[in-house]
Amino acid sequence: MLPILLKTLPFFALIGLGYLAGRTRFFGAEATAALTKFVFYFALSAMLFGFAANLSLGEIFNWTFVFAYLSASVVVYLLATGIALWRGVSVEEAAVEAQCAVIGNVGFLGVPMLVLLLGAAAAGPVLLVLAVDLIVFSSVITLVITARREGRMSLGIFRVLGLGLLKNPMIVSIVLGLAWGATGWALPVPVNEFMTTLGAAATPGALFAIGASLAGRSAERVQVAVWLAGAKLVLHPAAVAVAALVIFPVERYAAGVMIAAAALPVAGNVYILAAHFGVAPQRVSTAILLSTAASVLTVTAVIALVNGGA
Asked: Which distant-in-sequence residues (6+ apart) come within 8 Å of 239 by Cβ?
C-alpha cells in the first residue's frame, strides 16, 4: 500500500495546498470560483475531449459495465434514501443525502488521478462512470425535488433536464470527442497541441480548486455527514465490487477502474445542486469535507487492492 500512497500523495497534497491557500485567505472565494470555472469549462473539457477523441464508442460503452455500476449505485442510493426517511427528514433532504452516497468526484479528481495511476486504458471506464453519474443521478435528484415541490411531473421538467445536459461542458466535450474519434481522423497537430497544453492545466487546477473550496465549508450535523462519507467511501465501492466481480462478468481491469472510481469522495457538484435547491447545503458541505480528508487513506487502499487483484 505504501507505494500507492506515495503515488496518490501528490494529488492530495495539491488539495491540501489549495485548502491552505483558501484557509489563510491568500486565495479568496472569488479567486476560487474563477479557478473552478476555468477548470470546468476549459481545462477539464479539453482533457475529456482529448481522451474521448482517441477512443471509439465501442471502447467506452459497455452495457455490462453500465448495468454493474448502475445497479450497485442504485442499491446504495436506495439504502441512503431509506435511512434518511427513517430518520424523519423530508423527501428532498433524503434525495440530497442519497446523492452524497453515490456521486464521487470523478470529474475533478478521478479523471486526472485514475488515468495517471491506473494507466491510459482507464480513460474509457472512468468516462463511462462520469457519464452515468451526470446523466442518470443528476437527473434523478432534479426530478425528485422538482416534482415534489410542484406536486406533479411535467414536460417542463424534462426540458430543463435536457437543456442542463446540453449545457454541461463535461458531457459536451465527451460527445464531441467521440464524434471526432468516429471519423477516424487524427487531430491536426496544432489542435492536438492546444488541447494537450490546455488539458494539462486540469489536474493541478482542479485539485487546487477542490482544496480552496473546502476551506470555506463549515460543519453541520457531523454525525449524519460521517455516515454519508462512510457510505460513499466504503459502501459504494464495496457494492460496486460485488456487482462487477461477482454478479456481472465485467472485464477485470475495467472492474478495477470502476471500483476505484466508486471509492472517490463526495463530488462538489452535489453541493452545487443542494445550494441551488436550498436543501441541506451545509450537511453536504460537511460530507464533502470529511470524505475528501478520509479519502487520502481509503482511496489509496482501494487502488492498492485493485492493483493487487489485477
From this structure: 72, 73, 75, 76, 262
The residue that leads in pLDDT, 219 or 310, is: 219
Picking from 5, 209, 255, 234, the residue whose alpha carbon sits closest to that of residue 108 is 209
CB of 220 closer than 8 Å to CB of 286 = yes
- Structure confidence by residue, pLDDT tens digits, 91-133: 899 999 999 999 999 988 888 889 888 988 898 999 999 989 9
Q: Whole-angstrom Cα distance, residue 136 to residue 73?
A: 11
CA–CA gap between residue 197 and residue 205 (Å, rounded): 13
Return the pLDDT at 294: 92
- Give the cell for residue 252: 477485470
Q: Which residues contact 159 (CB under 8 A, 6 or more apart)?
A: none
* Residues 126, 289: Cα–Cα separation, whole Å: 23
Cα 112 to Cα 205: distance, rounded to the nearest angstrom = 11
pLDDT at 269 exceeding the cut of 70: yes
pLDDT at 183: 83
CA distances from 206 to 201, 237, 269 (A): 8, 23, 13
Q: What is the DSSP track for 202-248?
A: HHHHHHHHHHHHHHT-----HHHHHHHHHIIIIIHHHHHHHIIIIIS
SS (H, E, C) 294-310: HHHHHHHHHHHHHHHHC
Nearest to 134 by CA among 126, 145, 146: 126
Q: Counting beta carbons within 10 angstroms of the beta carbon of residue 161, is it exposed (0 to 12), middle (13 to 18) or buried (19 or more)?
A: middle
Distance from C-alpha of 120 to C-alpha of 166, rounded to nearest angstrom: 27
Q: How would residue 83 be classed by pLDDT, with cut points 50, 70 and 90? A: very high
- Asked if residues 53 and 187 have their Cβ atoms less than 8 Å apart, the reply is yes
